[in-house]
């Protein structure tokens, strides 16, 4: 089961408390009611320049789109393979008759 989801704005503000204001990770995590591990993960993700965030988000969107397209193309390929096998067997039946 997954834990509670927090909006990115909440995570960014939590990261700023550690990176800009100098608070300890454990203190910020306790105050906000999150785990230190989550806060470490947020720091790794959000302690980058804004331009880099946008680039990462765009790359993740592109990856999602490409995965969806790959699923679609794979399904189409599988259908075409099945059709080729079917027509090949039908062709063999009609040449034997």
UniProtKB/TrEMBL annotation:
<dbReference type="Pfam" id="PF01527">
    <property type="entry name" value="HTH_Tnp_1"/>
</dbReference>
<dbReference type="InterPro" id="IPR002514">
    <property type="entry name" value="Transposase_8"/>
</dbReference>
<comment type="similarity">
    <text>Belongs to the transposase 8 family.</text>
</comment>
<dbReference type="GO" id="GO:0006313">
    <property type="term" value="P:DNA transposition"/>
</dbReference>
<keyword id="KW-0175">Coiled coil</keyword>
<protein>
    <submittedName>
        <fullName>ISSwp1, transposase OrfA</fullName>
    </submittedName>
</protein>
<dbReference type="GO" id="GO:0003677">
    <property type="term" value="F:DNA binding"/>
</dbReference>
<feature type="coiled-coil region">
    <location>
        <begin position="56"/>
        <end position="83"/>
    </location>
</feature>
<dbReference type="InterPro" id="IPR051839">
    <property type="entry name" value="RD_transcriptional_regulator"/>
</dbReference>
<dbReference type="InterPro" id="IPR009057">
    <property type="entry name" value="Homeodomain-like_sf"/>
</dbReference>
<dbReference type="GO" id="GO:0004803">
    <property type="term" value="F:transposase activity"/>
</dbReference>
